[in-house]
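Revision sheet: structure tokens.
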Amino acid sequence: MLKEIAIADAYGAGFEFSTPEKISSKNDLSTFHKHELYDIQGRYTDDTQLTMAISEVLLEKAIPDKEDFAQKILDCFKRDPRPGYSKGFYDLLCNANSVTDLLEKLNPNSTRNGAAIRSIPIGYINNMDEVIHVAKVQASLTHNTSLGILSSTAVATIAHYALHKEIALQDIPQVLEKYDLNQWNLNWTTTVSVSAYDTVSAALSCLINNTSLSQLLIGCVDLGGDTDSVASIAVGLATCFGEYHNDLPKCLYDRLDEPAYGISYLDDLEAALNRRYR
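Predicted:
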């Protein structure tokens, strides 16, 4: 799960808000491409770093509170600063001297996709009531809006059902309906904005309509827009489903340029999650 999220993030970052011409000519999984704004290549963004932070919190505390999530997000950024965060949040993380400082300055009213992006590991939690509670708590840190909380809960719920109940892809709409989380457009076909509604709709649409990680990743990028976020969510969720075949090219694993918190670290982190929750 975690290393595939990192690969999807790093690959999608090379096409984030780029031209349709670049996507049509280069979206073939042959290599990572350079992000046109951040000048990074083969490196994951905030999407993976935030997912890593949530994973680490879940290993340290069974039912984390908002301060636990804030502390870990700050710690992960400080040990390994990287681009991809919104400018305001990036500046806050750079300048915050403590978790209290961070919480005092945060504006928690975003309707963007950040809460959804980092929610997949919450699905590891065994109890569904706790999944919903933790998803809401972590979302409230930065996305304390109905859409932000809904997006986090939907992603975590699907991950939980795939990991613990082994549902099929065709069961996703029914699971979402059961928890009144079925407000998404599951037939998304257009460019994706940073809105949580757009991103989750696009990711779930791509997830439901594929069974190969390679085709899924290509399909997420083909939509254009916030390609790394859509790909991170869709590919991360796909790894939870037995129907999905992992045929991502070996070159993407080999060329992920993350010596400190790369494949090995992510493998160890995921193994620890499996030991604790499965």
